[in-house]
Amino acid sequence: MIGPQPSVVEFPADDVGRARRFWEKLLGVEMQARRGEEGEGWQTRSGAPAVGVHLRGRGPGDSYSLPYFAGGDLAEALPRVRALGGSVVHPGEAFAICKDSEGSPFGLAGSPPSQAGTPGTNKQLVARFYAEAINRRDVAAVDRLLTDDFVHNGEARGRAGQREAVEAFLAGFPDLDNEIELILAEGDLVCAHQRWRGTHGGPFLGVAATGRSVTFTSTAVLRVRDGLIAEAWDELDVAGVLGQLHGPA
């Protein structure tokens, strides 16, 4: 998928839980159990960006880790590894061997420029945007991952307006979590159906904080150009959100 890679990275099977927790912090997404013919392990709940799982095979001592893909930019991912107490053993432009905060090794892979713009890398980009901007509360991701001339169809807002929208959601729901339940891509378009969860801890659409927990869904179609999100359309259940805020306690 990303060209030549180092050999499989081995580490003890009892490290799988710790590795999962470290990856969750690094990616800003929750991981879930995966079971297949090759063994058992963990992958992102949404399946994108593609995360190589720590698999425990069926044979005695048969444990290994597959690399996961960090959305194509190791220059940003490797500093996060270090910030979380991990280390980078063998850095590279497309693939790196790292260790988590407890010393367990894992592979960290990015997509080379030659693969930019494929349906797979486009899905990774979209998943990365929601993981960073929403789940990590890194609003600057809007400027990093959207084009200068970004257009949000249906509303008169460009990239600056999109940033304001993200800030408004995070202000209204400080613990907001985005989960991509289904993601599809064809050509330069990506469609993502998402579930959102959060606690109403600040003003949102004119409603003062209620402390209520809300769950709502949205579907977004995004166009990718030159490795950045250039255009978006989305449908969000605003009426459902307001109904939960105004409804019976």
Describe how the helices and strands are arranged.
Blueprint: H1 16-27, E1 31-36, E2 39-44, E3 54-56, E4 63-65, E5 68-69, H2 74-83, E6 87-90, E7 95-99, E8 105-109, H3 119-135, H4 141-145, E9 146-152, H5 159-172, E10 177-186, E11 189-199, E12 213-225, E13 228-236, H6 238-246
Parallel strand pairs: 5-8, 9-13
Antiparallel strand pairs: 1-2, 3-4, 6-7, 7-8, 10-11, 11-12, 12-13
Word description of this protein:
- A hairpin with a 6-residue loop joins strand 3 and strand 4.
- This protein is 27% helix and 34% strand.
- The chain folds into two domains: 101 residues, Roll (2,3-Dihydroxybiphenyl 1,2-Dioxygenase, domain 1); 131 residues, Nuclear Transport Factor 2, Chain: A (Roll).
- With 249 residues, it is of the alpha+beta class.
Features:
249 residues, alpha+beta, 2,3-Dihydroxybiphenyl 1,2-Dioxygenase, domain 1, Nuclear Transport Factor 2, Chain: A, five-stranded mixed β-sheet, four-stranded mixed β-sheet, disordered N terminus
**CA-CA gap between termini:** 50 Å
Radius of gyration: 19 Å
The CATH architecture of the largest domain is Roll
Q: How would a textbook summarize the main sheet? A: 5 strands, mixed
Q: Brief description of this entry?
A:
By secondary structure, this protein is an alpha+beta fold. It has helices at residues 16-27, 74-83, 119-135, 141-145, 159-172, 238-246; strands at 31-36, 39-44, 54-56, 63-65, 68-69, 87-90, 95-99, 105-109, 146-152, 177-186, 189-199, 213-225, 228-236. A hairpin with a 2-residue loop joins β10 and β11 (189-199).
